[in-house]
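Hello,

Our lab assistant flagged a job as stuck in the queue for most of the afternoon. It eventually completed. Since we weren't sure the result was trustworthy after the delay, we are filing this so someone can double-check. Below is the sequence as submitted and the structure that was eventually returned. Let us know if re-running is recommended.
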Amino acid sequence: MAIRGTTVLLTVKTQTGTDGFNKPVYTEITVPVENVLIGEPKTEDIINELQLSGKKLAYTLAVPKGDTHDWTDTKVQFFGQVFRTIGEPTQGIDELIPLSWNKKVKVEHYEG
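-- returned structure --
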């Protein structure tokens, strides 16, 4: 049996102009990203993230190779809930990773 991820909904921000103070104005759209693995973090990872950033790590996502979306500081929806990414994604070298996923993204519950 092959490992297969699930589809998550990622909020993508696109700059559509600037406001009267010359600050960027963004439009948000939600796009599906298929074959994402959703994993439960280890207890020590939860504690470390809380101590380092003050954020409570809820899940770790494995993003498939070839995905070009920006996963930094954005919302992700799955399991009927909304999450926000924490920090920068970590990425491995495609050729050195035997499976279909090469990027790891941490998320926290989002109250917004």
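-- support follow-up --
The delay was a queue issue, not a problem with the job. The result is valid. The chain has one domain: 6-109. The chain has a mean pLDDT of 92.
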